[in-house]
Amino acid sequence: MTSDPTSLAADVAELPKAEFAFPGPLRDRLVAAVLDGSKTATTGLVAEYEREGEPLPAVGGRSVLVDSEDRPSRLEVTGVRVVPPAGVDTAHAVDEGEGYAGVAEWRAGHERFWGSAEMRAALGDADFAVDDTTPVVLERFPVVADLRGAGWASAPLA
């Protein structure tokens, strides 16, 4: 990736968009934690990828993480595992950077989010609930580039 603003915009436009949570305070806290290095992992539902018709992340893949205003940062995937909730280990829970001391706190927090009316609506399933067999995607990443101040992003990403 070059430092030329036109090239940066073209590179970012070609990468898939990564969105943590829904736009608002939670998303912005998560993006801030990614940018300060305290969040190096995340967890998503396989059902989200299936609903959107998107492939699961792959090691080496890059994406553009956006905040609530669609300001971009570029991530590179360094690890992916698909497991049931019981397959989440303490290291992953802590590396999510949300203050979880262990897996029990991680699971309670994620079940609240995944069971929310907003998530159920996004999944198109008013009765969606996480159980011990629900496949989740554990993803690890570093920030490759914080592009929010690059000057070229005058409009949100499409």
Protein architecture, described:
The protein is built from six helices and seven strands; from the N terminus they run H-E-H-E-H-E-E-E-H-H-H-E-E. It has 158 residues and is α+β, with helices and mostly antiparallel strands. The strands form two sheets. A four-stranded mixed sheet has the order 1-3-4-7, with helices on one face. A three-stranded antiparallel sheet has the order 2-6-5. The two termini are 20 Å apart.
Descriptive terms for the model:
alpha+beta, 4-stranded mixed beta sheet, globular, about 35% helix, about 160 residues, 3-stranded antiparallel beta sheet, disordered C terminus
Write the layout of secondary structure elements.
Elements: H1 5-14, E1 17-18, H2 25-35, E2 41-45, H3 46-52, E3 62-66, E4 72-76, E5 79-83, H4 90-95, H5 103-114, H6 117-123, E6 136-140, E7 143-146
Parallel strand pairs: 1-3
Antiparallel strand pairs: 2-6, 3-4, 4-7, 5-6
How many alpha or pi helices? 6
What number is the mean pLDDT? 86
Low-pLDDT stretches are 152-158
Strand order of the largest sheet: 1-3-4-7
Given the helix and strand composition, which structural class is it? alpha+beta
Summarize the structure.
The protein has 158 residues and is an alpha+beta fold. The protein contains six helices and seven strands. The protein has a four-stranded mixed β-sheet, with helices on one face. The protein has a three-stranded antiparallel β-sheet with strand order 2-6-5.
